[in-house]
Amino acid sequence: MTPMKPGVYTQKVVAHNGFMEVEVKLSADRIEAVKVVKSDETPYIVDEPMKQVISKVIKDQTLRVDTVSGATRSTGALLRAIGEAVEAAGGVSSEWTPDPVVIDPAKLPLADAPKADVVVIGAGASGLAAAAAAAEAGAKVVVLEKAPEAGGSLALSNGVLAAAGTDIQKASGTPADPAGLAKLWLEDQKRSVRGGVPGYPDKARVEALVKQSADTVAWLTKNVGLKFSANPVAADGIGAYALMPAVSEAGKPAGAAQAEALLSYVEKKGGKVLTSTSAWKLITDKDGSIAGVSAADGKNRFEFHARAVVLATGGFGADLLKITQRQPRWAAFTEISKAAKTDTGDGLALAESVGAREVNDSWLIGVGIAPAYAPMTPAMLGPRGWKGITLINEKGERFVKEDLPVLADAVSEQRDAWLVLDSTEHDKANRLMAYFGYETVVNANNWEELARRIGAPQDKLRATMDKYNADAKLGKDSVMGRDPENFAPLTKAPFYAVKVKPVIGGTMGGVLTDRSWRVLNAKKTPVKGLWATGEMANRAFYNRVYEPGTGLLIAYESGREAGAAAAKEALKK
């Protein structure tokens, strides 16, 4: 190890919300202490992850520490600051990031494993729902979660659930019949990105899912204890079909509160949730039926003998290689993914090892668009928020009806996408220039100059914006059909262009399943004893566009149904 000059070094780096100042105390051969002196990050989101990373760095004396899901860019910036301090002290930062030691789980010592009738792999929304339902049915349940904590992508979500005909909606006088939600869902799928495989979505499965949604919500509220607002508020895309989560503890994401409630209920029913424990192999009988799961926690391996297994491992929204292999256009957007960092498609490999078949045309769940830095967002949005934005691409053309609930898919099709605005709110727009850069935000006194700075044809952008402003003056969007109330002229110079990218929230994919969530093999017959839920089995419900709130509905309903079926199979004599 290259010796360092002892001392305290202060480094300033760009994090998620702005700048971060980090103080690092170094001896000749150790990182002695790390302190975040100043930060623009959101305390309730980053404080605990920062503590975890600092503790790991000092304890293990390494910078090869995983960033924390939900605070990826913030904890990544922290590690970068520590590395820069090492360099400033004369050290070599690469020496503090040695290659990880690959552990072969098959060579770890075998330890005793809790008895299980049903093993659920994954402790997100669908996995915890499956475990809860299986435990209710009298099965001994073990949940394996490779992350240090349960929750998965659920813990990062806003907790909004699409449903119809629920007691909550009826009590509030909200008209929300199942047929209406199914129709809205299926109609909106017609605007999907071109090129998808024919046959998606499966109309019958969408209608059946929606029809069962009220029962699932009743189970979640009455049995599990999840809380939703008694006064539904219309949400973009699903209107009155949105069940909004009740106010959670101050500073805690609603999804995290739901995950805690589910975890508590599973444990109350006798289920065991083993964190930092990865499933690495499915055990089968001679006839190919599921007989259990091999798992490991880095120190020991475990053999869980069970006749029923539920794959609830999530999608592959955090795996760059899998995204590149399936939909390379999305590969550039993984940095701002909202999928749990553990969503790396583990369930696909497990399922395929026993003959399962991956679905055709896996796609990405786009949940929104975002600028390079989160603090830019308030400055680039007007009174109508996201509904009032105007987007153009590298050709200088508008390409989407901007007041749609989800714009990520359309943005993903462009080489570049820019949100344009004028100086009507000058002070707000001017704050964007703190982030000036040709890959972040630029400004100009006319459309031709702005076109040069974003690499678009000058005549095309001028024609686009002249047409836009003429339509806005008349109160009618003749190009994209945007609602007039979301359509305001952009005429006051200087003009601004903010580069935006789609935000990945997960994947539409998984393996083939039947309507009971049983995993199917290449012959489309069930793999006995194996179920898949959530993002491991959600492809049938979409073409190539995501409907807000439906991901949680699929997760909870598939988990509940698969868990109950798995328990029935496991307890069958």
What does this structure look like?
By secondary structure, the protein is of the alpha+beta class. The chain has 3 domains: 7-96, Sufe protein. Chain: A (Alpha-Beta Complex), CATH 3.90.1010.20; 118-364 and 504-571, FAD/NAD(P)-binding domain (3-Layer(bba) Sandwich), CATH 3.50.50.60; 372-499, Alpha-Beta Complex (Flavocytochrome C3, Chain A, domain 1), CATH 3.90.700.10. Helix content is 31%, strand content 18%. It has 15 helices and 20 strands. The strands form 6 sheets. The chain has a 6-stranded mixed β-sheet, with helices on one face. The protein has a 4-stranded antiparallel β-sheet with strand order 14-15-17-16, covered by helices on one side. Helix 6 (203-224) packs across helix 15 (550-571). The mean pLDDT is 92. Keywords: FAD, Flavoprotein, Oxidoreductase. GO terms for molecular function: FMN binding; oxidoreductase activity. It holds the Pfam family FMN_bind. Its cofactor is FMN; FAD.
